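W.,

You were right to be curious about this one. When I first looked at the sequence I had no strong expectations either way, so I just let the prediction run and decided to look at it fresh. Below is the sequence, 275 residues in total, followed by the output.
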Amino acid sequence: MSSTQTFFTFPRLPPEIRRLIWIHALPQGRIQLFARNVPWENWRLLPPVIAHVCRESREVASNHSVVRGFPTAEDIETTTWFIGSLDTLELHSGYPYPLSHPEPFFSAARKLAINASDFEGDISVVIKDLIEGQRFHSVRVVYLIVEQIETAYWPRFRPDMTEQDKGKGTIIDLCSDADQRKIEAYKAWARAQEMSPVFPRREDVELGLRAGLDNVILQEIRHYHERLLQVGQSEGGSRPSFPTTSPIPSDHPWILQQWRQLPEFRPAVLILGWR
């Protein structure tokens, strides 16, 4: 077989096929952090590699990204490229960040990550916004970060990582079989280095998280119901019928309907590394 890295017939492929190839080449697993008092220039996502190949590839990368800068950043290079369908939006300390105007990121994100210990703060506000449908219209999964681990091994958790991604972290989903295999591979490497890393186990953290999460969800759905009553709305006569009395019982069909519309919540570990 030829050792060449050039596919000379690529320009002759139909445009639709070329675009699918460019989309497949977009990076996955990156994290876009939003946090109060964290220097933006340290966390912005740089343009994907394909954005520098040609006009067509840059157009594909741009069309799949939220590309904008932040007026609160101190440096002049403030632009980030957030790919809502592939990257994870990590909400940390001070949500919803009124000074940063992050609404385009909220609208594009399909995956969120948030500190699992913050049920009385940011998690409650995020769940409120998810229930009311004011933000996060595309979110399918919310990762509840139960632990943060720093390790030099971290590139092996992300074999597709590029130099520009180093140090920005990745999410390990404790409910994912593929991610569990990554954890086992890390443990095997660590044993060879005479280390004994300890990872949280899904069965040890999920039950407690679920109990706290369910309490917050029920509370926020009831608050949403009370606000709807105050403004005289009934959600357009949606089924099951809107309850007109308060407090609303926890097993009411309307509450269950609101609950089913929420994204999936999963325990996760945040892996960080160094260059």
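Here's what jumped out at me. The radius of gyration is 22 Å. And, maybe more interesting for your project: Strands lie at 31-35, 66-68, 80-82, 88-92, 111-115, 141-150, 170-173, 264-272.

Coffee later to discuss?

I.
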